[in-house]
Amino acid sequence: MADASRQVSGEKGLAPTTARAADDGRTTGLPSLATALMSMTSEGVVLFDEMGTILLVNDEAAGLLGTSDLLQGTDVRLAFPPKDAPSGEPGGVIDKNSLPFSLDGEPSEIGMAQPDGTSRTIVVRCRPMRSSQGRTAYALVCHLGSTGEHADHVHDRAVEELRQANHRLAGILRIVLHTLDTEDVGELFGRALQEVADTMQATGTIVYLAERDGFHLRGFTPSLEGTHLARYMPYGRAIETLATEAGHTLRLHVRQPSTDDLRQGPSMRRTVVDEDSQEQHEVPRSLLPPFASFLCVPVWFGGHVISIIEVGWDRLRPIKMDDARLLDSIAQYLSVQLMGAFSAMRARRAEHLEAVASQVRVALVDVSASADGAAPDATALTGVFDLMAEACKVQVAPLYENVHQHATVVRLPQAGPQTLPFALDELEEGHVVDDVAVVPVEERPELAAWLVKMGEGDHGALLDLGSVAGRRSAVLLLRSHDSEPLLEDEVAFLRQCAQDIRQISVGAERRVQDKRISQALQTGMRNELQHVDGITADGIYSSATAEAFVGGDFYDLVRLPERRACVIMGDVSGKGVEAASVSAAVKTALAAYAWEGLTPARMVRSLNDFLMGFSRIETFATLFVGIIDLAAGTLTYCSAGHPPALLLRGNANVIEALDVQSGLVGAFEGMTYTDGLVQIEASDELLLYTDGTTEARNPDGGFFGEDGLLDAVMREKGEGFDGLLDRLLATLDAFTGNSLEDDVAMVALRFDEVG
């Protein structure tokens, strides 16, 4: 790499050392042609400097000299120990008198021990070369001693190269056939990684996938089971940076520590040598693969590196440039397959997290229902947090506020209870959305550093729900130090769950408050029928929901002077406290209007003006208001959008519908309301009801309707007035299967003394 590239690498977190062969100019400008020629010749070639450091070496030399340790950056004297040097690591300036060959270009025959215990003769020629900067390097060429041996060696080498080529070709075909159109990431990795390892005759293969914060481990061959593998490589801190900048596969090896290095004790960093450029980089040991020599392969898609593949050997060995080019070709093919499988994996992961989020919502609703609508308490939330933790593979560390000491205590998985040295509001700054905060630990370095100091993992998130059930509810969700940070979709999942918990909890708290208000309204403004001489009255109210105490349906019977009375039946739109409050206001206003002696139409018109005068009231009502005059034997009424009342004649089997209709109340200004008038006689009965009666549905979706009501009234009328409403409600329950969808209110009046 050029000097500019090394500078960039250093800024991103890599620590390039002073490469002896690069910084002093001895390899600067070495032509790639020399490397290509060295790979083509049948003779072994080694280039080394005056310190004995190998600058270039081909595979032939490593094979002839009988050592796999002969790599760029190592000492040539590992293959040619000085004749009079004591045992140990070679070093220092080359002493020409100590080498077993001359440095003047004359051939020297050397006996080389072979791994199988035999020996063979190698002919070596070596001569110095001087660069334009006046520096000295040496070129060493070697081949087998006898002509016959050399010829056999050349033949064997050609056969071996052909065999290797066939092996590589077969491997590529297997990779293509086994991964074609594979959308399952596990299957793709399981097949492709093993095929790559087999094709390259490597110890193993590792693959990382790019996420927003770095490369995350996503697969490795079974041969690496039990070895230390970096679960996560942050951008700019590992060899992935070198491969990304180079744009192609890198041939790398880990330099073995020297005697001096070992004397200094264990190091957290290791030196990685780029065999193409001879640059040396200090890389954290925890981020290195378990290989001595390896290929780092960037997988490109759409101008971005989406994956890093590492193929390696557990022993030092020379790596051919053709192997690097082969892996570049494989990576180009795999990029499309990998992107498709990666997208499928992300989609399945998102579906799984969404399913867990649904489980969280169901659990919260169940808890709220079992607690009679109350907000989930700390015990209930613990189970919910456990669901979230299992989905994200994290541990839950609850936080508690000590209000007396103005401190926050966190119960850490390893360290136990500890006082958090930060204010939650400061940690959550910029992350609060809808009263909920989800803060990745990596975005708060001070928090991450403190967790490491406490012996905990520094990956995870702070989740704060704000005040729930009267106390602040927050947790730390933590992963171990050597694991990967939370992925983007996992953070989104936690945020969604937190918002759901907050929404359901706040809603439950509001329902509890509404229930208390409703109970107060129920006590102070309950539906009642005053006693009126000459009238027998009965009323009934049935709520569609078990938890409802009051709703929008209401009725009243107000006793007035001179044998008169006002009957009121109404239905305010909406449910809960707001509808109940409006109902109470309407009842109060109508009772006041009735005492003023207004006609029903005038009462309703005044009420409409009253409701329209308050812009904050966004509701409307249907009403039946009737003024009963027992002395005159009349019923004057105004039906404002309400279902028609039924008048059951006592002296005949007849039901009359009071069908003089006007518009709704509280919907529009300037509405016109009309009175209806009907004569009443002794033993006549008046039935009032809300639309929940006629709009009740059976399990098949059919309406009870006005015809159903008329049939029921005619059937039950003969059983007498007492219990009429109870029998009608029982009929409704039977029709709906005890499943009313709307509240039902009914009032029955019997006129006993008329005239």
Q: Could you explain how this protein is built, in words?
A:
This protein has 755 residues and is α+β, with helices and mostly antiparallel strands. The protein folds into four domains: 31-145, Beta-Lactamase, CATH 3.30.450; 166-346, Beta-Lactamase; 394-518, 2-Layer Sandwich (Beta-Lactamase), CATH 3.30.450; 525-751, PPM-type phosphatase domain (Phosphatase 2c, domain 1), CATH 3.60.40.10. The strands form five sheets. Strands 1-12-11-10-13-14-7-8-9 form a nine-stranded antiparallel β-sheet, with helices on both faces. β2 and β3 (54-57) form a beta hairpin. The longest helix has 50 residues, at 321-370. It is rod-shaped, with a radius of gyration of 45 Å. The model is unreliable at 1-13, 15-32, 169-185 and 546-550 (pLDDT under 50).
Briefly characterize the structure:
By secondary structure, this protein is of the alpha+beta class. It is built from 18 helices and 33 strands.
Q: What's the layout of helices and strands?
A:
Elements: H1 3-11, E1 15-16, H2 20-23, H3 32-40, E2 44-49, E3 54-57, H4 59-64, E4 108-113, E5 119-130, E6 136-144, H5 147-179, H6 185-199, E7 204-210, E8 214-220, E9 232-234, H7 239-246, E10 250-254, H8 259-263, E11 269-274, E12 280-284, E13 293-301, E14 304-313, H9 321-370, H10 378-392, E15 395-402, E16 407-412, E17 416-420, H11 424-427, E18 432-433, E19 436-440, H12 445-453, E20 459-468, E21 471-479, H13 488-524, E22 528-529, E23 535-542, E24 553-560, E25 564-572, H14 576-595, H15 600-612, E26 621-629, E27 634-640, E28 645-649, E29 654-658, E30 661-662, E31 676-679, E32 685-689, H16 691-694, H17 705-717, H18 724-736, E33 744-751
Parallel strand pairs: 22-24, 27-30
Antiparallel strand pairs: 1-12, 2-3, 2-6, 4-5, 5-6, 7-8, 7-14, 8-9, 10-11, 10-13, 11-12, 13-14, 15-16, 15-21, 16-17, 18-19, 19-20, 20-21, 23-33, 24-25, 25-26, 26-27, 27-31, 28-29, 28-32, 32-33
Helix pairs in contact: 5-6, 5-9, 9-10, 9-13, 13-14, 14-15, 17-18
